[in-house]
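Hi P.,

Sorry for the delay on this. The queue was packed all week, but I finally got your sequence through. Input first:
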Amino acid sequence: MERNKQNMTHRRMLTIALVLALGVPTIYSLLPGCESTPSEPVYENPFDPLGPDGGDPLQVLALAANDTTVVLSWNQPQDMGLTHYIISRSAFRDSNYSEIGGVDHSTDEKGEFSDIRPDPTSTLWYRVQAFANSEFMVVSYATPNSAVTGPRVIVGSGSGSTATRFTNLEITVTQGNQLRIALDPTFTDSLKIVPAGAPNVPINLTYDLGPASGNNEGKILYVVSFGDDYESRPSAQNIRMNFQPAFTVVDDPPTLATRNVDLAIPSEGVLNMRFFPEWEDTATTPWVPVSDIYTDYQLSDSANPQFIRAQFQGDFGFDSLVEHQVTPDLLTSVTFKLGLPDDHVTDQSTVKGISSAVATEMRYSESADFTSAPWIAYEDTIQINLSPTPGHKVIHVQYRNDWAKSGTLTDYVIHVTQPAEVSFWAPLDGNAILGESIFQVRGGSTVGSGEGSVTLVQFDSGDGNGFTNAQGTNAWSFM
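Then the structure:
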């Protein structure tokens, strides 16, 4: 019994020691009817820094794209009244952020923003700030996220395509003193290493893209800037082969006056070229040297629209067949006028002729049958010599080119031998007189000071009888 008593005392001591080891909360759990488990805290504000997301529910992600564009994405919390986001950028993680753009809030799961052409070969930090309206900021900046950009690379004209395998590259960096260029991401295919330019100063170099099987084949060019303890992200440029020389007639007129035409050739990437009217003439037409202007092509004498067809050998290793349509001008839209005052009166022995025609030659005469009128080279403006006898003269003009001859166009001139000014009072210019009744024409005439006086006025009614004396001088009439 004494042993049992000792055992009971020993058990009580173990219980007390256990309670002391576990602490007070364990006492409550051991007491019947007093068990309690603390509830997890509730974080209703996802921007609470003590919350499960560390106060950053946006979770911004920055990725440098292949064309040196940095694409930002973030979560868009819903049911919080958010209206928009402001995006900032810095070269440092914790300071000097500057706003670069904004994006409206939407119901999409993700928001997105593209930073176009940021500084090349740089480590850039981005953060996104959420707003409930234009005056009130809901949350401080989200945790910054960084992206390392690659070199800025412009291929050829910047269109993403090239007509030649030896394409021009314009490359800009801010860090690194050398460039690694290749056609595969492991930088083993067609590898080229060249010095980089000074920071933010582009350099130009020629890179051989190698042969290609045909148009629209694509290649990817990879460029990395590197130096002591530094290497940029690779920039990847998609390049499409586009060897289709779009030749035209020089100045590309809508219609042509001559069969002998000069062709303007985009000669980039061209090794040889030849031109012919029909595709079946391809093999029998000799190759000609490459030049920007080809001057030895002659069109057919057909007045219908016709094609000039060409074959170009390219340095990619494949040929391109191209055609260009031309249209002969049939001189159906020509104009002519004399450069005269509104009354067509002049005391000069020459007058200016103003033409508009797609012509190679022209002729003019005071005779409708162009008696002794030679064909001369076409010009938009010419000086026309009048016959010496004063009076009403009709100038007849005609045009021709390698395909057609125009109808006759006319204009008139009243050639006087003294500086007299004649005016019409009735009928007024533009008025029409109908019927066969007798009508009277009235007008006036004056001469300048010191030029004498008007002694005779003659009038030509256009009846074929020529000029007839009118009644009166300063105020005259004709019946």
